[in-house]
Design brief:
The protein has 301 residues and is mainly β. Helices cover 0% and strands 47% of the residues.
Length: 301
Amino acid sequence: MAVGANNNRFYFTLNNGNPEPRWWREYFLVTRAKGLRHDGQRIDFSAVNVVIANSGGTYTLPVGAGSETVGAQETGYNAQGESGTNTNGSHPYRYPYRAIWIDVTQINTTNKTWGLTPKGGYYESHIQITTQNAAVLTLNLAGQYWQTAWNTKPFVNTFSVERIYTQPIPYIELEMRTTLASSLDIATIRYLSTVDKARIYISSDASGIGTNFVFTSKDGSATLPYRLAYQSTLSSSSPVEITMANQSFLTTKTSMESPIDGDTYSVHRLEGKVRLFLDPLADPPTPGVYSSNVYVVVQKN
């Protein structure tokens, strides 16, 4: 956190391997949502800039996006984003856009902790973006001013863990899931960076090495062990159980087309599902509400 800042805005702080939060520059954000229609046209549908001046600010998307389809005679959208009844495939899409992105502009204020020039090195800022359905995206920004060879470069990436269930999962949904093949999707992990490779660990503890996954009842009197698996969605690979011998996964370098401008970029990427299953039980667990923490640790590679 920026030391001495009191506007609850966003801040670049100096970090040359050791954080120096006394050196900072304040900024705020201006956002604008745009969409990619199913016919490939890019549309400035919001037509308005929204200022996010302070940490905790919000942005409301008025429409959705995705490649999901609707059935015959259901209300849907055509490739031009027009609503209508889906007759003989006339309006097959559930959403008017294939993708939505938010242009984000960073604007400096006059508040900073130096006079004419900042202290040399790397400056970084970390913005966490969350949604009401529990998706989380961390946006890591980095800048530099006269850095030297011994300065440590920031770890530049975007990373998200999207939970599928925001309420307790009924036991009836779990009791028959006793194999990798029948395991239940509980989250999606996404990593993207044009700069840094990474290794992703899935763990039962914050150190990134534990694989003892256990549900604990709310009052702590009962436990229920479970297993986790990871399945890449960037390939056709099968789920892999998380064990001490196999709990980390490397990013792969791929080419990716941006929906924003259609250009192709080389990126380090990982995307996959976290899946849960149980050992067969002779008797059901003690009734109650159970919880468990799963840690996803990102390591620069």
